[in-house]
Description:
Elements: H1 2-26
Amino acid sequence: MNDIIQNILVFTAIALSIAFLIKKYFWKKPKAKKACGSDDGCGCH
Length: 45
């Protein structure tokens, strides 16, 4: 019985870690481009 619980916990941990890595590296949100005329302190004017 303990082997079954241990296997479930191991596979759950592996699935969570793979899901985290996929979310971190493949589902990146595109960064918004800042307009140069806005007051963001880019120093281009």
